[in-house]
Amino acid sequence: MIKTVTASMIIIGDEILSGRTKDKNLTHLSLWLNRMGVQLREVRVIPDAGKMIVDAVNDLRAQYDYVFTTGGIGPTHDDITAENVAKAFDVPFVQNAESLVLLQKHYDAQNDKGERGKISDARLRMTMIPEGARLIKNRVSTAPGFQMENVFVLAGIPVVMQAMLLDIETRIEGGHQMLSKAVHVYEGESHFAEILAEVEQAFPSVSLGSYPFFRHKEFGASFVLRSQVGADIDQALHMLKLKITQIGKECFDGEAEI
Asked: What number of other Cβ atoms are within 10 A of residue 31's Cβ?
């Protein structure tokens, strides 16, 4: 029996919605999840707004096996993700002793090097997490994220977010990995619309996406097949190639380089 495990992502930050900051976490997380046998099914981008964070967390944690949030756990006034995750779970927002120890060790080490190492009140805010949450450590900036049941709260800075993922690999129980194969053609995708529909209808376990491109003054399309069933994806690919050649067109393995 095929086991499917699903996830969603909440990207939090006014700076993302305004266009000032380009999100780089979505691609990394989706590839990481696929490797873990988890399918990313939904992504929401929301502002630093308390009620929207609460509503998104509660909605998505009820729908998916895992929820990942990025952004809003820093030391400034607009970093409100952690306290609103606590509200979503209806638990107290408290200082975490383990997080405080980690932060103190970090600043003690700075002091040993003759650097400024005083813990400011703003930095102390990063030791506050929902009661009962489990820390997610990172080797980059010391300040941790946290896990609350099936919700993983991560940093928005890509290098820190990626470091946090390393700490939670053993906490993720994945299913069968989503497989992917592709072909591409140098013709407009409209020529193949009926064929694509026939192949997808013949193999319900296979999703078939068409992605047009324009390269070297030629229109073309990549056809990407995705499935958790290896035999089905192989048979669907064979059927697709056969039907393309039957209408006198040529196809090439893999996605087109564009």
From this structure: 11
Domain with CATH 3.40.980.10 in the chain: 6-171
* Dihedral in degrees, nearest 10, Cα atoms 125, 127, 131, 137: 140
pLDDT at 31 over 60: yes
- Taking the C-alpha atoms of residue 53 and residue 55, their distance in angstroms, rounded to an integer, is 6
**Helical axes 158-168 vs 25-35, angle rounded to 10°:** 20
**151, containing H or E segment:** strand 151-154
Query: Rounded distance, CA 71 to CA 11, Å?
Result: 7
Superfamily in which the 179-253 domain is placed by CATH? ACT domain (3.30.70.260)
Whole-structure pTM value = 0.88
CATH 3.30.70.260 domain range(s) in the chain: 179-253
In our burial notation (b when 16+ CB lie closer than 10 A, e otherwise), range 188-212 reads: ebeebeebbeebbeebeebebeeee
| Residues 149-191 pLDDT 10s | 999 999 999 999 999 999 999 999 999 999 999 999 999 999 9
Residue type, 162: Q
* pLDDT per residue as tens digits for the range 193-248: 999 999 999 999 999 999 999 988 889 999 999 999 999 999 999 999 999 999 99
**Is the distance from CB of 31 to CB of 202 less than 8 angstroms?**
no
Looking at domain 6-171, its CATH architecture is 3-Layer(aba) Sandwich (3.40)
Q: Distance between CA atoms of 68 and 43, rounded to whole angstroms? A: 9
**Alpha-carbon gap, residue 156 to 46, rounded angstroms:** 13
Phi first, then psi: give them for residue 17, nearest 5 degrees.
-70, -30
